[in-house]
TrEMBL record:
Subcellular locations according to the entry: Cell membrane
Name assigned to this protein: VTT domain-containing protein
Organism whose genome encodes this protein: Hyphomonas jannaschiana VP2
Keyword Transmembrane: yes
Sequence ranges assigned to domain VTT in this UniProt record: 36-155
Gene Ontology, cellular component aspect: plasma membrane
Taxonomic placement: Bacteria, Pseudomonadati, Pseudomonadota, Alphaproteobacteria, Hyphomonadales
Length: 171
């Protein structure tokens, strides 16, 4: 998995014109663990020197992440009676209970907070759909969470990597 992330990051380094597209696609699939590593690595290639590219990366991550969550939400709605048969619950059945408890405890905030919690990252959107959380409410929380995550994780990665590259004379 780490090798795949390294290949994606390497491709982005060789083809910077594709960074925003890669960030969108990676953010859409960020619930898969290794994808998150690639997403942060690709975003780090932008650096702080080009604010318009950084804004495009944040926008791409926000839209991709929200659409990925909404897709999981729709899968949850469609499969609400048999979540144990679909990934990731088939391999990790305790994730259903953990995600349900997380949603019960945090309510709407679970959609935002869940994005920052590895163990329930993929489960919260699916369970929210299965529990029939209102779609508009879920979507708004998903966009907010995706934007917050993009700013919290990707902006520091880009700024930090850019600064490090400058200090090392690599930029």
């Amino acid at each position: 998995m780490d090798q795949m992330a390294a290949q994606v990051i390497g491709f982005a380094g060789d083809h910077p014109q594709w960074i925003a597209v890669l960030v969108f696609v990676l953010a859409f699939f960020e619930f898969i663990p290794f994808v998150w590593v690639a997403l942060v690595g690709v975003a780090a290639l932008v650096g702080p020197q080009n604010v318009s590219h950084l804004l495009a990366v944040v926008a791409a991550a926000t839209i991709g992440g929200a659409l990925g969550d909404i897709s999981l939400y729709l899968i949850g709605q469609k499969n609400s009676g048999h979540l144990g048969r679909i990934w990731p619950f088939r391999k990790h059945p305790s994730l259903i209970e953990k995600s349900e408890a997380f949603c019960a405890r945090w309510g709407l905030g679970a959609v935002v907070i869940g994005r920052f919690s590895g163990p329930v990252r993929a489960g919260v959107p699916v369970v929210a759909g299965a529990l029939r959380m209102p779609a508009v409410t879920f979507s708004a929380a998903s966009v907010a969470g995706a934007l917050i995550a993009a700013v919290v994780f990707l902006v520091p990665a880009a700024v930090g990597a850019g600064t490090l590259f400058e200090m090392l004379g690599l930029s």
